[in-house]
Amino acid sequence: MPHVEPGMTVGLFGGSFNPPHDGHVLVADIALRRLRLDQLWWMVTPGNPLKSRRELAPLADRIALSEAITENPRIKVTAFEQSLGQSYTARTLEKIRARNPAIHFVWVMGADNLKTFDRWQRWQEIARSVPIAIVDRPGATLAYLSSKMAQTFDYARVDEEDAALLARRPAPAWTFLHGPRSRLSSTALRAGKPVRG
């Protein structure tokens, strides 16, 4: 895991990044700025239980591509989940928080992940363990209104204007961040479809 100092605020941005693209960088940059994070851990996962392994590029390639497109020194590309033997977010969060008890973590995800968030293993436990920042993505702007996660934890929504305080709030707490959006998607890039950024 990247080095941190007690009291830091750290965003956890996990995904298969298959391949990583400028849309991911935009989400990371928005989270760093709007949440006022000290670091953002760009966590390249060994696999995704909700996606086919056949279409997954080798982990080393996804790490190298991620490092090539992330220029901000506060973004730390890492693949420590492989050494943990974990592929489920809830378990990974348990390990991260146990090893870093003095750090304020926020789970960062694109709004396009909200539609399947309730299919993640122990998803309610995830929401109760760390604050969550959901960053707007094309076609998913209204997802926070209809998603099961947003409806279940409606009472825990933090106004976007208070996003900078999210990392220090007790979970459950979540916010939806509007801002610039990129139409790039890993699915389209793998399929060789032309997509305007």
Automatic annotation (TrEMBL):
Keywords attached to this entry: ATP-binding, NAD, Nucleotide-binding, Nucleotidyltransferase, Pyridine nucleotide biosynthesis, Transferase
Gene3D superfamilies to which the protein is assigned, alphabetical: HUPs (3.40.50.620)
One Gene Ontology term of the molecular function aspect: ATP binding
UniProt EC number: 2.7.7.18
Root EC class: transferase
Keyword Nucleotidyltransferase: yes
Keyword DNA-binding included in the entry's annotation: no
Domain Cytidyltransferase-like: 12-191
Listed pathway(s): Cofactor biosynthesis; NAD(+) biosynthesis; deamido-NAD(+) from nicotinate D-ribonucleotide: step 1/1
InterPro entries reported for this sequence: Cyt_trans-like, NadD/NMNAT, Rossmann-like_a/b/a_fold
Name of the featured protein: Probable nicotinate-nucleotide adenylyltransferase
Organism (species): Ferranicluibacter rubi
